[in-house]
């Protein structure tokens, strides 16, 4: 389901397609509003494996 939502957000027809280095990839997230409505909040985590980098 998660891969399908990423594919839809980026108009990708084949979920197994390789991305081009530097290409923008939109990742849909679930967020909520604060009690007073002044800001939105999303809890996001990303597992970085040994040898990988957060920055590309």
Automatic annotation (TrEMBL):
Gene Ontology MF term list: kinase activity
What keywords sit in the KW lines? Kinase, Receptor, Transferase
Question: Does this entry carry the keyword Transferase?
Answer: yes
Per the record, the domain of life is: Eukaryota
The identity of this protein, by name, is LysM-domain receptor-like kinase, putative
């Amino acid at each position: 389901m998660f891969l399908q939502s990423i594919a839809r957000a980026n108009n990708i027809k084949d979920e197994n397609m390789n991305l081009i280095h530097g290409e923008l990839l939109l990742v849909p997230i679930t967020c909520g509003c604060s009690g007073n409505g002044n800001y939105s909040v999303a809890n996001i985590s990303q597992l970085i494996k040994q040898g990988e980098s957060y920055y590309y």
